From TrEMBL:
It holds the Pfam family polyprenyl_synt. Keywords: Isoprene biosynthesis, Magnesium, Metal-binding, Transferase. The lineage of its organism: Bacteria, Bacillati, Bacillota, Clostridia, Lachnospirales. It comes from Blautia wexlerae. The keyword Transferase applies. This is Polyprenyl synthetase family protein.
Length: 298
């Protein structure tokens, strides 16, 4: 397998899915739709919908049932990026190599378009009910929605974000930093992979293994972000580097140094692949995707 060719092909497929579910830019609220779509079409790795789709395939899933969830997940993730960039939070001017939403549409529309994307994600995912052909599939859609809601809210991404904001600039111990990372970043990766498994018919034990693997992938991904913030460039990363230092954020790099942080990434990624392989199911691309996160440069 040529991993890079497969990655490019699958990313294009996901882009097409995302475009299929974007709001129409019309009517009196078209400016908000434009702001939502500006952020959604800014590019990016599309990692979360990709992990969802590949986990769906890992358990033999086929068909369109997963597509509204793929688009919905990217909407939830993009909402978090819009709000992260706001002046009240990270106050960043660039994201994915171009001006952030609030710099183009203003702070108020940045806030509103982020909230609208979060809500529109659930409108989009609910469309899966019409695609469900059996009672088991309808139950799977309900279970997947429950996971998505829980991992997004106070016990997931938004909970982690709130603790991050509350402790901004303060000295943190590893346990609190892990809480922030496990919720602010890993929770959406857990939701993505768990949803893919659930929609494909995985049982509770298998979904639990996926959750454990996804948590490690999420932690590794965030620690690698910490490393890139001090080792990459603005051009390579597509956003300002050294933003953690500028915002006085405690990271794995500030706690342990770059070398030990990199070792943590490698260890977590290896554990994740081992957990996935314990399921005795084959998806070579998924395993390679997880391993490539260790060496990514953006």
């Amino acid at each position: 397998m040529n991993f890079q060719e497969e990655l490019t092909k699958k990313t294009k497929e996901i882009e097409a899915v995302i475009r299929e579910y974007l709001p129409a830019e019309e009517g009196f609220s078209r400016t908000m739709a434009q702001a939502m779509n500006y952020s959604m079409l800014a590019g990016g790795k599309r990692l979360r919908p990709m992990l969802m789709q590949e986990t769906f395939r890992l358990f033999g899933g086929s068909g369109k049932l997963v597509k509204p969830f793929m688009a919905g997940m990217e909407m939830i993730h993009t909402h978090s990026l819009i709000h992260d960039d706001l002046p009240a939070l990270d106050n960043d001017d660039y994201r994915r190599g171009r001006l952030t939403t609030h710099k183009v549409y203003g702070e108020a529309m940045g806030i509103l378009s982020g909230v609208a994307l979060l809500n529109y994600a659930y409108e989009t995912m609910l469309q899966a009910f019409a695609m469900a052909e059996t009672l088991l599939q309808k139950e799977a859609v309900i279970d997947a929605l429950q996971v998505m809601a829980e991992k997004t809210g106070i016990h997931g991404m938004l909970g982690g974000q709130s603790v991050d904001v509350e402790n901004d600039g303060k000295a943190l111990e590893k346990d609190m930093l892990d809480y922030i990372y496990e919720n602010k970043t890993a929770a959406l990766i857990e939701a993505s992979m768990m949803t893919g498994a659930i929609l494909a018919g995985a049982d509770a034990e298998q979904v639990s293994v996926i959750e454990q693997a996804a948590k490690r992938i999420g932690l590794a991904f965030q620690i690698q972000d910490d490393i890139l913030d001090v080792t990459s460039t603005d051009e390579e990363l597509g956003k300002p580097v050294h933003s953690d230092e500028k915002n006085h954020k405690v990271t794995y790099v500030t706690l342990f140094g770059t070398e030990k942080a990199a070792a943590q990434v490698a260890g977590l990624s290896a554990e994740a692949v081992e957990l996935l392989e314990s399921l005795n199911k084959n998806n070579e691309f998924l395993y390679l995707l997880v391993e490539k996160l260790v060496n990514r440069r953006k």
